[in-house]
């Protein structure tokens, strides 16, 4: 069932989004060669607790950590680990914050030290793909308009769009209807309505869009070893246009 959120629910989700943005800004200061993603996970757990919030995905279907940390060819749901990040890596940190029952979900891909030009371009195209998709998150538009905006741009730039994982509705739990694919046809799919809250989170690959699963049952990675990047916002559909609760430029 698709739920449309009340003003009070949206205000709580905005507060969670503000805290999530602050968490990402702290992470951005920490990312450098030699740090481990487990250190980031430990920091986030403490940071959220100090601010009266909890990591919503910890314990979700048995997931053990406060963040997902996906390095290089890992597409999503990478486990934090003690392996040190190396110069030239890229790492996606994804988390869901629960603050007083309001949820916010945002992933961000970071460069570690000096990343090659193709890697920088991957991140740039991935971020622009999200921006173009957000522009389509308007009352009366369809879900296919969002996916088409991502696919047409990313593929036009020589990259591929992961098909196996989608955005989603959010609140009061992490994954709600509807699914938001990052590929598709314009003017197809469910219409967006005022009060819906969704995530848009394109995962863009250097090579093939196909993925394979690690033995842990969680981590997806590219089949060809190409790198993958992801950016994600939580978005409220409003009369005034898309409201980004996780807008890093706003807080």
Number of structural domains = 1
Poorly predicted tracts of residues:
none
Mean pLDDT: 97
Second-tier CATH architecture? Alpha-Beta Complex
The major sheet is characterized as: 4 strands, antiparallel
Total DSSP E strands = 15
Terminal-residue CA separation:
32 Å
Q: How many whole angstroms does the radius of gyration measure? A: 17 Å
Overall form: globular
Provide the CATH superfamily.
Answer: Creatinase/methionine aminopeptidase superfamily
Structural class: alpha+beta
Which fold name is given in CATH as the topology? Creatine Amidinohydrolase
Helix content: 25-40%
Order of helices and strands: HHEEEEEHHEEEEEEEEEE
Q: Identify the quaternary structure here.
A: single chain
Number of helices: 4
Strand content: 25-35%
Molecular structure report:
- The protein has a single domain, classed as Creatine Amidinohydrolase (Alpha-Beta Complex).
- The protein has four helices and 15 strands.
- β7 and β8 form a beta hairpin.
- α3 packs antiparallel against α4.
- The protein has 251 residues and is an alpha+beta fold.
- GO terms for molecular function: initiator methionyl aminopeptidase activity.
- Belongs to the peptidase M24A family. Methionine aminopeptidase type 1 subfamily.
- Its cofactor is Co(2+); Zn(2+); Mn(2+); Fe(2+).
């Amino acid at each position: 069932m698709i739920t449309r959120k009340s003003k009070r629910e949206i205000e709580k989700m905005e507060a969670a989004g503000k805290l999530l943005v602050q968490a990402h800004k702290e992470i951005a200061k920490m990312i450098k060669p030699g740090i481990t993603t487990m250190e980031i996970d430990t920091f986030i757990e403490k940071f959220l607790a100090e601010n009266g919030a909890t990591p919503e995905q910890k314990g979700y279907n048995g997931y053990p950590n406060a963040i997902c940390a996906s390095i290089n060819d890992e597409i999503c749901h990478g486990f934090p680990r003690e392996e040190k990040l190396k110069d030239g890596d890229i790492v996606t940190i994804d988390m869901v914050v629960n603050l007083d029952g309001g949820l916010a979900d945002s992933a961000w891909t970071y460069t570690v030290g000096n990343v090659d030009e193709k890697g920088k371009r991957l991140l740039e195209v991935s971020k622009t793909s999200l921006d173009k998709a957000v522009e389509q998150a308007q009352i009366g538009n369809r879900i296919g308009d969002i996916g088409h905006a991502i696919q047409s741009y990313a593929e036009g730039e020589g990259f591929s769009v992961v098909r196996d994982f989608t955005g989603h509705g959010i609140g009061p739990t992490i994954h709600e209807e509807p699914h938001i694919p990052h590929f598709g046809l314009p003017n197809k799919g469910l219409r967006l309505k005022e009060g819906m809250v969704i995530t848009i989170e394109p995962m863009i690959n250097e090579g093939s869009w196909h993925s394979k699963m690690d033995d842990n049952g969680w981590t997806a990675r590219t089949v060809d070893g190409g790198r993958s990047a992801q950016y994600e916002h939580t978005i409220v559909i409003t009369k005034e246009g898309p409201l980004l609760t996780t807008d890093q430029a706003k807080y």
